[in-house]
User: Fold this.
Amino acid sequence: MIKMLHLTFVLLSIFSFVGRVILSETHPVILKQKLFKITPHIIDTLLLLSGIALVFQGGWLSANYGWIIAKLTALFGYIGLGVVVMHNRGTVRWLAFIGAMVCFVYIGIVAVTKNVLFFL
Assistant:
């Protein structure tokens, strides 16, 4: 049950992020509405809380937990790059967007494989 909630919040979070990037290019005035400012924070908070619940439910802190630290580190990168995306224009925005998407994909692959260096 918690895993399904977590995966739902993952999808809502990425769709929200990509949607806000598209809106910032096409209709930036819409992003000033209260709904578009608050909703992403609610989704991401619920995503983080469900992730924490999964860690405790799965007992993953008692075993090899390096993959959890890698996911958290990549999450901070994703958040930081997301801030850059939402506050910049032009090449900087799109390079940060690509970086954020790389972080997102890395987090997903590490979540499935539990292997930090899956690419080696």
